[in-house]
Write a structure and sequence with these properties.
Layout lengths: L6 E8 L21 E2 L4 E8 L4 E7 L6 H15 L6 E5 L18 H24 L2 E11 L4 E6 L5 E6 L7 E9 L4 E8 L12 E2 L2 H14 L3 E5 L5 E2 L9 H20 L6 E11 L1 E10 L7 E11 L6 H20 L4 H24 L4 E11 L2 E6 L2 E2 L1 H10 L4 E5 L8 E2 L10 H4 L7 H20 L4
Parallel strand pairs: 2-11, 4-5, 10-12, 18-20, 19-21
Antiparallel strand pairs: 1-3, 1-6, 3-4, 6-9, 7-8, 7-13, 9-10, 14-15, 16-17, 17-18
């Protein structure tokens, strides 16, 4: 089989949960179920083939998926497309205004609806993959970079000296807006991928509506301007958030935040020529004023490669508390929360108990997953689509890690982010461990894990580049 013209197709399915399923999962929220829908949640699948290999990019507007849930979706999509699971990328936007993670259900109310919701996802996403497969047509690809400064570092030092999740205007962020454009040979848009690094936590504990948060509103604005179905690639956003307006229920403001990123992405998209062209001065055209007339010609297109690869890296772990201790703490916290809700306790007491219950469940998750282990295998997934490689990990890496991977990658265009193939927790830089805070304290990983992850990702990228000598 020989490599042929690039082909691409896109499919989409709505995955908004019922209002009978639990909502969000903030420790400080007072509600259990949502009151309505701000904007529908979507799962979008892009299928791309170069004649030798076919890959699928699956993006869901959810908070996290477990490794098992991600693998189930990956297997269903792979079966539908007759490809290997490693050729399927499953990632989420990390949206905090949809259903909570299936494993962190702090309330029995809506439990059956939530379980049914997650059980249906593999079939739904596989259906979108089938739609994308049926829509495959010859395509051209291009990419570009923009910049948005709306995101801020969220590792704030509060007045009492604690490290809190808030606003740190001097901390590191990653302002890059990556845009990948896929058009048909006729010039009609097929799809676009937009990458940006910012936690979707604009909508917070008081928001009672299902929403895709800012990435969904970015998508809506981008699609309105360009006409191209948009997939979102979250970056290394472990320490990056939406700034001082975040953690609210201000729908107008979250729409505006998404629009800012969407407009920048649309600007980049509109400036891309497919195929790429070179321009040169042709002549002076006398028209009252002497006009400089330029001409253009297309740049010779190389034969684009499409590849999907998965490797594993063993990340060093902290020591976890005993599983039975963690389970006892969860039972006690849940019983207290149920009692306060049943008796109509004051809001501040319910908030505190909800927070304690969520933290206890997170600790139990870490204990049951990693107890007795000194290191944990974490998947690094690579998806190459023409000149761009998307590197994704099943965790929440800090932004400095993403910038380092992109800077040292052998490819001209590399995107690095988390929430791909599952969820394993925060991966903080060693420099941030002395400060503590939520991201460090809830992570299962030791302070050396960040360097191990970066080294393993760069090694995998170099191996991919060496397969065909396509690195720069």
């Amino acid at each position: 089989m020989s490599r042929q013209t690039l082909a691409a197709g896109v499919g989409r399915v709505e995955i908004t949960p019922p209002l009978t399923a639990p909502h969000a999962g903030w420790g400080a929220q007072l509600h259990e179920l949502p009151d309505g829908v701000d904007q529908e949640l979507l799962a979008t699948v892009l299928v791309v083939s170069d004649g030798l290999e076919t890959v699928a990019f699956c993006e869901l507007e959810l908070v996290i998926l477990s490794r098992a849930e991600s693998d189930a979706i990956r297997s269903a999509v792979a079966a539908e497309l007759s490809i290997e699971p490693a050729q399927v990328r499953v990632c989420v936007s990390h949206n905090h205004a949809g259903p909570p993670p299936s494993a962190w259900n702090w309330t029995a109310r809506g439990e059956a609806a939530l379980a049914g919701y997650y059980a249906l996802l593999p079939a739904q996403v596989a259906g979108a993959a089938r739609e994308a497969k049926l829509a495959l047509r010859p395509a051209r690809i291009g990419w570009g970079r923009g910049e948005s400064r709306v995101a801020v570092n969220r590792r704030e030092t509060a007045p009492d000296g604690r490290t809190v999740t808030g606003v740190n205007q001097r901390g590191p962020t990653d302002p890059e807006v990556l845009v990948v454009r896929l058009d048909g040979i006729d010039g009609e848009p097929i799809a676009a991928i937009v990458g940006y690094t910012m936690h979707p936590t604009f909508l917070g504990p008081t928001n009672r509506l299902i929403s895709p948060d800012w990435p969904g509103h970015m998508r809506a604005v981008f699609e309105q301007v360009t006409g191209a179905p948009c997939l979102f690639a979250q970056g290394a956003t472990g320490d990056v958030g939406p700034g001082p307006k975040g953690f609210s229920d201000d729908l107008r403001a979250v729409h505006g935040l998404g629009a800012q990123v969407g407009c920048e992405a649309a600007r980049v998209w509109l400036n891309l020529d497919l195929p790429a062209r070179t321009y040169r001065h042709q002549r002076v055209w006398e028209s009252g004023a002497p006009l400089g007339k330029w001409s253009s010609e297309p740049v010779a297109e190389g034969m684009p490669s499409v590849r999907g690869r998965a490797v594993s890296a063993d990340l060093p772990l902290k020591t976890q508390i005993p599983v039975e201790t963690a389970r006892t703490d969860v039972d006690a916290a849940q019983a207290r929360l149920d009692r306060l809700r049943d008796t109509g306790a004051p809001a501040n007491e319910i908030e505190a108990a909800t927070f304690a219950t969520k933290r206890a469940n997170m600790t139990l998750f870490r204990s049951t997953t990693y107890s007795g282990m000194s290191a944990a295998p974490v998947e690094i997934h690579l998806l190459q689509v023409g000149p761009i490689v998307f590197a994704g990990v099943e965790g929440e890496p800090f932004s400095e890690l993403g910038k380092r991977v992109k800077r040292e990658s052998p490819f001209d265009a590399t995107w690095f982010g988390g929430y791909t193939g599952g969820w394993a927790g925060y991966v903080a830089t060693a420099a941030e461990f002395p400060r503590g805070g939520y991201e460090v304290e809830t992570s299962p990983f030791a302070e050396t894990a960040a360097d191990v992850l970066v080294a393993a990702t760069l090694s995998a990228l170099h191996d991919l580049a060496n397969e065909e000598g396509r690195g720069r």
